[in-house]
Amino acid sequence: MPPNDEPTKYQPNRPGKTGYESGPRMTTKILNSLILPLLALSLMVGLAGCKTPLEYKAEADEEVYSVIDRFWQKDMGSRANYKISDTAPLPDDLNIKKTLPASGVLSLARAVAFATAHNRQYQTEKEALYLKALELTAVRHQFAPNPYGRGNAGYAREGPDEVIGILGALGFDQLLSSGAALSTNLALAWAEVLTGDLRSGLSAIFSAAITQPLLRGYGRKVALENLTQAERDTLYQLRIFNRFRQEFVVDVASRYYRVLQEYDTLKNTRENYDTLNDLYDRSQQLAASGLIPQFELNQTYQDTLKARDTLIQAQRTYLQALDEFKIALSLPTRTELSLNPGELDTLRAVKPAVIDFPEDDILKTALSRRLDLANRADAVDDARRKIEVAADALRPELNLVAGMSEASSNSRADLTTLKALEDKYLLGAELDLPLDRLEERNAYRRALITLSQSIRDYEETFDQISLQIRQAYRELVDAALRYQVQTESLELARKRLENTRLLLNTRLANTRDVLDAQSDLFRAQNASTKALVDYTVASLNFYRDAGVLRVRPDGMWDRPLTTAQAP
Q1: What is the CATH number of domain 226-383+443-565?
Q2: Most exposed among 121, 255, 439, 535, judged by the fewest C-beta atoms under 10 Å?
């Protein structure tokens, strides 16, 4: 009997023996035999060219932005400021850090550019566009060869047989525009026999299969429906994004002018209070000289107190509007900044244009250029197409199936998956009769209802846009006329106050007359500024709703059309 520390040799003809080596020598042999399979697996991983997460991200970005660039249409405005924050910007993209000018004064152009670069909602819209295009890349990938590579290595034991080996598979799957599904596979197996009667060596099997629908699911329209819809959804999101850009720039500019309006109101209120203070000092002197009665002095003082109260309220209103504008710029409310009052002077220097656009022409232009209406119109086409696809699903299913597999001559090497395989060729058909099409029937009925809903949605959007355009046009005409009226009223109020002051000196007017004239001037100043801002905002709203506002790379808009360029 051998010593306890000596391993038993393999003796196949001796009954009662296990037929296996055991002990440290067998373990070492298995480990040594595993080295080659593990090296082979490592080689497969290396050949696959595994990428880092950053490389995958860069690949996704490149594909997504190529999709966006391909679907971007000329009527959508400049192709800029649409890349999300963690990707490299375009040369025309705004790249403004969250720092203010040294003066702390923000011009309109700077404010719009700052908001375009940092506004949170703008960033969300850019990300929504990116994600929609990313979805398209996934759908489109199904119609390209989708390669795969798998493998495993290890130790197998079955009865008296022990094998160390590696099994790998390479191939690809692909959907075709005809509705066919194609699949190929190359399986490779290498085995090293430790014990038993199997043969060592390399074995390979190549297989391919294709399934081609002949009835249900046949044809480009049905097979490519998901891809078609994904492409149209990307186009729709592009239109939504560019419509948002038009609304965004108008909103930022309107907010800017409204804050300046509050600032101008505050300035007028302070001047009004200072004027009444001066008038009160003057009235005290007149009352002390007996030139005016005491009640006129009291009236002056009472109006001064009212002006003081109005000043306090105006200060609060302006600061609140300024803080809200900071949030629109994604700035902390504690940030110290002010807006450029000269922007109002620029508006005052421009005489309001004569509004004589033919209303029917405006409506026609808007309906042809509005991106949101285009989405509604295309949604009707989508609904009609989906009815055809749903009707196709009700048909019988008849598929032509073809396949082949070819194995190498040394096919006994793999104990698990390559054992006893022979060359095989297949050509056949699969039939599924439409005996149970409840789910497909319901889908078809839903598609019919969706079409009706899409048509109604388009009609409602058409009517709403028509109403919006007519309203915007009327508001623009009204704002232009009111601004002219308020400008004349302001000039008249200034002359009236000046004349009343002269009459007070000669006692042909009393203090109450001066107070009334000053109050009317104060109201006229505020009304004139409001009318100016209303007219400017109405102009922006009109060009936005007419679909003719174009956003530039710097975030600003193209110069509005003149009457000679009426849409």
Answers
A1: 1.20.1600.10
A2: 439
